[in-house]
Structure formats: C-alpha cells, structure tokens
Amino acid sequence: MIVPKSFKNTYEEPPDRLRDLVKTALEDGELQQNSSRDRLLSDHELHVKLLSQGNLPTKNMILPVPYIPSRVSIQDAICRKIHLVDLKVESRDADTCILLRNITSPYIYSSTIMVVEDKNGDAARLTISNLEDTMVDPITPEGTLLAVKQPCWTRLADGGYHIRVDHPSDLTLLRSDDKLVPSAWRAVKEVDKSKNVTAWKKEGDMSFLKKQFRKALECYENGLAYLEMHPSLTSAIDLYRKKSGVNIILLRLDDAIKDLSSAILTHFSSLPAPSSPETLNPGAIEEWLRNHSTEDPLNIATSLPKGLKELAARIKFDLGIYSDTPTYDLSLISSYVGPLTLHVDAANYTLNTEVRQSEGHGRGMFAKRDFKVGDLICAEKAFVLPGYLIQDPSSDCLLYNLGDGTAAPRPGALLFKELVTKLKYNPSLRKAFFDLDDGGYWVENGYEINEDEEEIPVDVFRVEKIRRLNCFSLPTRSSDLLHQPPNSNPELRNGFWIHASYVNHSCLPNSVRTFIGDIHFLRATRDIAAGEEILHQYISPDIDIEERQEKLRGTWRFECDCTLCEVDGAVSRDGRQLRLKLFEELKASVMRLGEKGTTVTAVKKIARGYRQIEALYDEDVYKGLPRLALVHPSLFLTEAWRGVKNVDKTMEYARKLLRNFGILVKTEDGKLEIEDNAGIINVEGVRALKYLAEGHKSKGDEEISAQCLEVARTWYLIITGSEVGMSDFLKF
Ligand SMILES: C[S@@+](CC[C@H](N)C(=O)[O-])C[C@H]1O[C@@H](n2cnc3c(N)ncnc32)[C@H](O)[C@@H]1O
C-alpha cells in the first residue's frame, strides 16, 4: 500500500489543539453525523500501515477534562443499551452502554485505536486510553466484542469524532457466549478440537517466548479445558503454574493467586492421601499467599515442588512481606540493582511506625519507639516502579492533563500507566491505594465515599491526582547521585510507595529517604522519641521562602510551617531581597572566577562577600537554624581553601558549611560535639566532616579526626541507604 504524501497522522492527538477544543466544547450535546464506514476503514488501514513502518513520535498520553466512572453494571437492567446513532457530542450518560465489535486490527501507540461496528452495522472510531497494550499482544484483537459504558462522541483535534474511553472500568471485554452479545455476533470461534493438552501447552509456550502473554494465557486455558475431558493431574499443575507466571508478568496478582492456588490444590490431590494439610482449600491457600509473612501455619510450602514454591515466594514478595527486624544485607541488595533490574527480594519493615492524624498536616507517620540518629525507621518495597532504560527513546512519552493544564514527563507518565494497569487488574490492592491523599478530588467531584463498596472503581483522574501528590522521584540507587558530575541533571525515575506516602514535609526534617532499586529506606537524621512525627523534605528548600512556599503550594497545596519557614518568613521583605541580591552577586563573582581560575586574592574577595551576607543573619534568631543563602558560598570557600591547601581555612569553612545547614560542630577538649543537631543532613555535610577529619589528622588530632569520620559514616549511610562506596568517598 502506498501512503499518500498528504497523509496526516490524526491518531496521535496534538495536546495544544485538544486544549483549544476543551475550551470550546461546552455548548455541545447535539447528535452528530459520523464519517462513513469506508472512510473510517481506509483511514485506519493507513494509520496501522504507517505505524508498522516505524518512525514513531514521542507518545502523547492525554487526560481530558475529568469525569467520574460509571458505577452501573452492564448486566443491570437499568443500564440502557444504546446504539451509535444515539450518541451525543460531549455528553455522557452514566446509565448507558453500547455493545461493539472491533472490525480492524488495532493501532496501538499513544492509545489503542480501532474501528468498531454496532448491531445496526454502523461504524465508528473507538479510542481506549491509559491501558498498557502492545501490537504483538493486543488486548482487543480484531473480532473482540466490547461493551462501553457512558459512551459519548468526543471531538477530535483534526475534525471528526470518536468514542473515547478513559476509565478502564467503563470498558468490558465480552465473551462471545455472554447473554448481552447480539445473536448475529454469536458465531462462536470454535476451539480447535484437534489439539491435545501437549499441543496447547506448546503453543502457549511459543506465544510466551514471543511476548504474546495474553495469547499464552488463552492457550493454557484451552489446555485446561481439554483436561476436563481427559484428566491429567501433572498437566493441570503445569498449566496452572504457567498461567500464574504469565499473570505475574502482566501485573495481575489477583489472577496469579487463583492459578497458583489451583496448582497447589491439584498438587496435593495428586499425592497419597494424608500428605495434604488438613484444612487446605482455595481460601486457606490465598490467605497464606496474602499473609505478608514468611509464616506458613498450614505448612504448605514444605511439600511443594520447586516451581510452585518459587512462584509462591514471588507473589508473596510482590504483595509485601513484613519483617519485625530492620536487618538488610545492603551491599548484596545494592549489587543486584542495575538500570534494568530494580526488583529486590527484600521484606518490608514498618512495624515501628504508625499512621495517624497529625496536627495540621492531615494524616502523618509517627514513631512507635525511640530512634537514634542513623537508625532505620522503615523500609518498604515499591507498589509500582516502572522499569525502563533511561536512554531508550522508544519509551519517551508525556502525559498531558487537559483538566488542569499540566504535563508530566516520561517518569510520571510511565508511572501513571502502570498504576492504572495494576489497579485495574487487582481489585484487592485498590483500597490501600485509594485511601491515600487525592487532594479532595473525589469528594469535590461529588463521588460519594462508600466504605463498604466492594469494588472501588479505577478513576484515572483520581489515580493521577494521587500519583502527583504521593509519588517519589528517585535514581536507580541513591548512592549513584554521589557519582554524578556537578551540575548534571540526570533523569530520575518516578515510583510509588504506599506507607511512605504518609510522611509529611518539613524543611527541617528528622529523616532522609533513600532508594536501592525498588526498596525505599527511611533513616533518622537525629534522635527521635517515640510518638514524634516523622518528617522528610519533599524538595530541598529554596533560599527564598516565597519561592519554596510557592513550590509546595503548587504541587501539594500547603505551606510549610516549620521553624525555619517561620523565622525566614518573619524577616522583612527588604531584608530578604537584600540577602538574595548579595547572594546573586556573589554567585556571579564565583562564576567569573571559574573561568579565570582561583587565586588566594580572589578567594579572599569571595570571603568578604560571604561575610556581608552573614551579617544579615541575626545569630540569636537563627541559632541552630540553617542559613540557606550562605550554603553555596561556604561550599565554594571550603573547596577553594582546600584547593590552595590552606588547612585552617578549609576547616573553618567546613565548620561554617555545617553551621549553615543548621549543624553546630564543636571540637573542644579533644572531643567532637554536634550541638543542636536539628539541621539538614546531606552529601555536602558528609564532605565537610571528611575535610574536618582530614584537617584534624594533619594537625595530629587523631581522636577528633576519627570521631569526625565516624559521624560521616553514619551520615553517609543515611543519605545513600548503604555503605557501598563509603570508604572511597571518605578517603583522603
Ligand atoms: C504525601 S501526602 C502526606 C500524607 C497526607 N498528610 C495524608 O493525610 O495522606 C502530601 C499531603 O500532605 C499534606 N502535607 C504534607 N506536609 C505538610 C505540611 N508540612 N503542612 C501541611 N500539610 C502538609 C499536604 O496536604 C500534602 O498535599
């Protein structure tokens, strides 16, 4: 087929044009003439052809103006069945549903697009958004029967209309024997009766190797159907095991549990009579797989073959195993993790923290016991952390939210899609996710919260709200950040941790979060008493209080009320602006120096500028608090004095650097003392301690030097999550 030169890809929607459409779409509600069937089909064919030729743009995932998912069941009598001729422009009725049949091979890129027909033979374009789908293993191959709830004609940016499905629960794939399916469509595709179980298994395995996971599931199911007529326990165990493994890959843990449970029951029924634990039934096995513990009260695992035991362990780790000891082999975990291997088989440790109402911050996380500086407060495996190669352009995508005009780059867009997929296929995991802060979205949109609701619907707009308010940005391993060249801006991943989502923000935190692959560690940066709220920094604080409050307001809709914000906020506007002006001037001088190279005279000039800013901080007011406008200048001066080998000045400015983070260091009577340790612990602080250790050693104060290094080691662990690379980092 020749693609005409004038061809325009109207399947990849330009967000700017859609944004304009959103603004003008309000007057709608009329019936609309659709394109002809022939035109739709030829247009579709061209798009599929173009896609198969490669040359793919960045994926634009688009969330339109929010609407609530339909809550009626398609099987309910109140759910009115309508046809394509009944659809109205930009107007949806939550009690309606349309039955459709896909008559094309789908186009799968930013979304899944196909041409469908209804019972009357009318045709239309259907776009399914927000679901993981692939051309090699499409969710809706040609011939698929679908029911779409609350359908409406949605305007396309380049003219024309389509039915657009955003909420996964508004779409149901129908089996051909479903009573809703019109009789004309019931010409059931006969299962190939000539195939025996071995043939189905083989075909399933081949599909699996070609990454056609859904096809593999279908083959294994056909194999199991064959076994109903020709029973074989060994084959049944094998097929259930394979299905369970495929479901894990597809993130369908609820289904994987059912399959594994069937495999285990079949296994026990194949053994001589008393081998099976007494009260074994599907419920008991499911309970064991979901008990979040290594405990096995019914002693199921012991007599399982290796394959089933491994699957059980995989599922248990994916659902989270909770341990009561904070013991982790950090070097080993760290050595497993790489750009494509984020998954770590490690247990969660959360029992010494609890979530409860905090004062003025909504819910928060609280200490249930005392923690010492450096202690692990909690550790948790990710709910979702998408794996992809950061340099790989084929995973480039953006998520446009037309409702609030925001756009999330690749890390957020991929996290959103994987969250929607995981929630869609695992109703059992929805409650914990949807309990999180959605910024009031659901209530504001009139959705009644029903605690007993059996199946919480997956509202994609709500998922996105929760993602934005609760996700973390992270490197593959926190220690990787220490090895980045200065001023480099590496792309960070976006991941989701449920327990950690309850930690509130403070610019003066008492904990620091780190990541090794998909495990999150939170450590105490100072001693914390039982009952205290655990706080970390959502973002490192800007020097300018207005800017930092603006950032917190913009993303999280609150203003920080920590002591630093209180004190910074009490400085007059003129005073703050003078600080900023001097800071900017000093920064420009440092930049100019960078071009010429550093001399002692030049460093002294910067030190004068430093003192000018320092004079603007009232030491009584800022006692024990960070002086953020002095952090970068003191950092520069510490390195500069070290560069010209002036030990005393290096130590003086290293101490000042720590002071500017709110950490007072005294080295009197041959002892290191860290006073008022309420400040901010980060890599610069660790480096400052290392320089102090180096300086004291060169002066023969071995003991203080060793004490500085000891504190530096604890801080290194706090900020990277492990000891990996510590001795190299602290070497001098
Ligand atoms: C990641 S959630 C933290 C848990 C949340 N408090 C809850 O009840 O689920 C982020 C939200 O918590 C609230 N929050 C966090 N830190 C806060 C603070 N320092 N002051 C006021 N609200 C805060 C804000 O509403 C923010 O959008």
TrEMBL record:
<dbReference type="InterPro" id="IPR046341">
    <property type="entry name" value="SET_dom_sf"/>
</dbReference>
<dbReference type="InterPro" id="IPR011990">
    <property type="entry name" value="TPR-like_helical_dom_sf"/>
</dbReference>
<dbReference type="Pfam" id="PF00856">
    <property type="entry name" value="SET"/>
</dbReference>
<dbReference type="InterPro" id="IPR001214">
    <property type="entry name" value="SET_dom"/>
</dbReference>
<dbReference type="InterPro" id="IPR053209">
    <property type="entry name" value="Gramillin-biosynth_MTr"/>
</dbReference>
<feature type="domain" description="SET">
    <location>
        <begin position="351"/>
        <end position="539"/>
    </location>
</feature>
<protein>
    <recommendedName>
        <fullName>SET domain-containing protein</fullName>
    </recommendedName>
</protein>
